[in-house]
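Q: I'm teaching a short session on how sequence maps to structure, and I want students to see two examples side by side rather than one. Could you give me a first protein with its sequence written out and its structure tokens following it? Keep the formatting plain so it prints cleanly on a handout.
A: Of course. Example one:
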Amino acid sequence: LLEARRAWDERQLGSVEELLGRAAAIAPDIPMLLALQQELTTLRETVLELITDGNAAVAQSPDDLEQAGAAVDLFNEALELDPANQAAADGLSRLSALFLDKANAAIVRNEFAVAEEALNFAVEQLPEQEEITALLAEVPALKTAFEADLRQQVESLARVSSLLQQANEGLPNTKGDSQQTAAVAAIFDEVL
């Protein structure tokens, strides 16, 4: 039972359960054993409730960053009580994926401020998630590339507009003038 108490203090709940099981097989009515079993049951119930609440917070509104932050807090609290709890760790992984999905969707829509907001919030909530930090570092370069591409498209459209205007101005003068007709044709060729 002393080993079980040490394991309890170190939050090694798997070891606690095993040691309590062995002690119960020898002497099931010892008050310290019963007390530890009750504490373990209560702790497991608390952890399960935290995980259930975390999952509910995400399910209620997956796009709400505040709800996601509340879920992170619940999963982290569950992990503080039971560091080896896989359901709580999985909850944090799902939230990480949710933040990444939200940011990637915003990037696809060229909404870089939205992506940065989601990723900054995610880094604050889940600082150990390297994928989030890496994507956040890429956003400024993606934004710069998008803006450069947009400027190039605007310049191309302005050039096409200017050429079309030149062609339009030259059309009335092409009747019987092969040089003017050739010049207008060259403008259309450049536009196309």
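Q: Perfect. Now a second example for contrast.
A: Example two:
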Amino acid sequence: PTSTTRPTGITSNTFTDNGRGLHLLSNPGAVFNATVADNTSTGATDANGAAFLIEADGGTMNLFNSINNQASDGLGDGLVLVNRNGGTLNVSSSTSGQSALAGNSYTDNEGDGLKIVADNALITIGSLSNLTFTGNTGDGIELQATNGGTLTVTNPVISSQFTNNDGNGLNLNAAGGTVNIKIGQDVVNTDG
């Protein structure tokens, strides 16, 4: 799918007790435009995976309006956004002022609620606001940049709730990469 005005829509689905609920992959040279909204994944069984896995592996992934999704009770992470091998991953909203991930909740997963990884690649996310992270065994959010990767969140992280996660509420991990983020009105830049 290459249309930015009519991206592939994956909406209003229920995934129960699958290895992963949903996996989107953009391989080298590919362009994938998608909207993922109003989906529920419960009990994902892949302990090394995620309820929702969206990745650019040398290709381009444009994710529009990934809103109102729920991932709960999975053996792995709730949502993983990963970009590797020089790919491009853009996460944006087509509605001005709205977080591209608004209304998502990640509850009681055995891994992180939300993990975003830039591995030798670039990820740009408009906003990480209005999200809920409760009771995950790992972190609420883990932002990770490795091997020269750069992860940028262009707007402040505000109005998100982090409750009873066993790891950190928000974990910034720049290991040989760069994470650029605003939290509230403060700018946090971590270089590893």
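Q: What should students look for in example two?
A: Point them to this: The longest strand covers residues 50-57. Also worth mentioning: The mean pLDDT is 89.
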